[in-house]
User: Fold this.
Amino acid sequence: MKVDRPILPEIFKGIALFTPGGDLIYCIDSRKQTQWHLQLCVALQEILGLSEPPHFLIPCYTATVDCWRDRSDRQLRVAAEAYGPVLRHQTLLNAIFGTGELVWHPRSNEMCEPMAIATYHHQFPELWENHDLVVQYPISVGRSDFGSFPIVPPSRFQQLQQAQPTKPTALTPPPPTQGYVLRLFVSGSNPSTERTLETLHQFLEQSLDHPYTLKVIDVLKHPEQAEADQISATPTLIKIWPKPVRRIVGELNDAKKIVRLLSNSEF
Assistant:
């Protein structure tokens, strides 16, 4: 497929959000002031008719590119990063952002928890399908500068589905997990954080009769993840799986609160 180089601002920030099935929604921000992650999730919800925005795709299924002019020599610089699950889409990313044959730098998979994302497959099966979508946000009627890449407003998605039958995804559905999936949000590395981790680890080791995965997320290093999970204070412990999702905000030295958080789980 021949793709013409798009006409882009000289200085901009681009953010792309993929689905596990390979669909893509992205934005180009010449002001470089906004993260856009939440807007892309809401737009994806509207396009695919999801029950809620798929915030759990952030940051694992994202890629970002930053184009700026170096103050020292006035030369244009480009930095492009993508998480492991979307690195295979570099050709498409270069096409939509006009970055030629740029090699994208892999981001650390520290924030990617396949087990946690797999828990959403039953609730959001549309995300594991491939609808051949490459959508620029803000969404507009018509076609993009990239020829074959449709820009699909939510009002026209039903029509697109009828005209282009959904292709089966090459990915197999992820297997259900048999243990707990937990996220702990903290603020920096300090004695208080260390005490919280030690207390929680001891309780989980002594009290759980199922295996567990605990992902510790520093909100100072990963504010986009804190925003996606609506974290208002730290520490916050969230039980992602099994359903229902529950959380504790504040000090985690109350064993009864943790027991209530983990109770009524449906394995």
In short: The helical segments are 37-48, 90-97, 114-118, 154-163, 191-207, 223-228, 255-262. The chain has two domains: 12-163, 180-262.
